[in-house]
């Protein structure tokens, strides 16, 4: 519902100018810029922590975040913002990454918190959350997708580069939804800690996946998937 025809009221079409006015109004609603979305999975964290506040980054996780931050900075792009999950491991990853990108504003959101987006197909034996989780988490993660992943606003004049620091389940679900693949297949993908997934959203709404879970910038002994 973000294509130009969905953004104007066709009932208000002027009878005299007709198609000419319609074309003008459509042009006014068309996106002009491309959005570059960088989805970053948080770094390795303490799996023994019971509460979220105890699930802090490990020393290796902090190294991974430094490497990811350095990689993002080396791209030479003018990043507009960093939006991150409010969970501890994502917040700490963001703080480290942001040191390499001074001046880029940070925004925390609960929408990007980890969860169970949709029942995976095929199912797996080692991970079986309660059915209620799919209803609660799934609605929230779908809301995150609709809120953050879309073509540029018609008022946006220049291409934008945005970073989202969140979690594996969220990223995998967003990738499936963005590419219009069956979202139930999200668990067929695997993402390393600190990895970079790059989506490009063109003005016409077409989406391309440039990279998925890239950690080629990390030494092999620093790569984990916990």
Protein architecture, described:
With 226 residues, the protein is of the alpha/beta class. It folds into 2 domains: 30 residues, no CATH class; 190 residues, Phosphoglycerate mutase-like (Rossmann fold). It is built from 5 helices and 6 strands. A 6-stranded mixed sheet has the order 3-2-4-1-5-6, sandwiched between helices. Strand 2, helix 3 and strand 3 form a beta-alpha-beta unit. Helix 2 crosses helix 3. The longest helix is centred in the middle third of the chain and has 18 residues. The protein starts with 18 loop residues before the first helix and ends in a 12-residue tail after the last strand. GO terms for molecular function: protein serine/threonine phosphatase activity. It is found in: Mitochondrion outer membrane. InterPro entries: His_Pase_superF_clade-1 (IPR013078), His_PPase_superfam (IPR029033), Mito_Ser/Thr_phosphatase (IPR051021).
Tell me what portion of residues adopts beta-strand conformation: 15-25%
* The CATH C-level class name of the largest domain: Alpha Beta
**Biggest β-sheet strands, sense, barrel:** 6 strands, mixed
What distance lies between the first and last C-alpha atoms, to the nearest angstrom? Answer: 37 Å
Whole-number count of domains? 2
Mean pLDDT: 92
Principal-axes geometry comes out as globular
